[in-house]
């Protein structure tokens, strides 16, 4: 069963896109004796035709699918992945994940006891689970200490298996906002500053976006409202001011970065849309 799951995962990786970008891969994956791979598929859901294709041959050169033809063709010298008994489809995309941990009863304790190194190591487990579930591209919308950047780098280098990741690094929040560590005694919040995503005012918002970009963020995420898991604040209330939101969005777009806004309440959601965000989360 483990081998079958692995093969399905590989098929999803290779069939992810006709113009796939570097990223999703298995640990140590590299071009060996040949840079060509052939998948012999029982069926193919290609996302183009209305009905699934029958027996098909998928030819891949390095990280590009070069052809999908009917029937099972002679592979020649290419590496062969035999999935004649399976359906192959493009990799799935999850637009909102947090691969550095699971939401559990002890999440608050972990947030102040685990190091960024702990989180990066733990995230390799969830990255593999995500890939095995068929997701070959994800947006990781918030992680502490750059753990998501370390994970992405390890995947891109072929050191660990996982999906392609667009990473937000720290989610941006106001002091006491949804992404601020609330509910703790004051001295435990000494690192709540714009470098860690806690911003107050448009000027700090600009600096925070630039800082996240400098250290590897490929998407920016901010919390327009609180949320159901917030310790302080209501999810119905707008948190960032309109001016702060505009500063975040305008700076991100100047840097070529998309912006995601966590928003529950109507007022904060509408303010985020006015500011020009690219996606609303939740």
Task: Summarize this entry quickly.
Helix content is 29%, strand content 22%. The chain is of the alpha/beta class and 282 residues long.
Explain how this protein is built.
- This protein is of the alpha/beta class and 282 residues long.
- The protein has two domains: 2-90, Urease, subunit C, domain 1 (Roll); 93-281, TIM Barrel (Alpha-Beta Barrel), CATH 3.20.20.140.
- Helices cover 29% and strands 22% of the residues.
- Helix 3 packs across helix 4 (147-156).
- The longest helix has 17 residues, at 116-132.
CATH topology of the largest domain: TIM Barrel
Share in β-strands? 15-25%
Could you say how many structural domains there are in total?
Answer: 2
CATH superfamily of the largest domain: Metal-dependent hydrolases
Q: Averaged pLDDT, please? A: 85
CATH-derived architecture of the largest domain: Alpha-Beta Barrel
Low-confidence stretches: 1-22, 28-32
The shape, in one word, is elongated
The strand line-up of the biggest sheet is 3-2-1-4
**Head-to-tail CA distance between termini:** 35 Å
Helical coverage, percent range: 25-40%
Secondary-structure element series: HEEEEEHHEHEHEHEHE
Helix count equals 7
State the name of the first-level CATH class of the largest domain.
Answer: Alpha Beta
The assigned structural class equals alpha/beta
Q: Major β-sheet, in short? A: 4 strands, mixed
Number of strands: 10
What's the alpha carbon Rg, rounded to whole Å? 21 Å
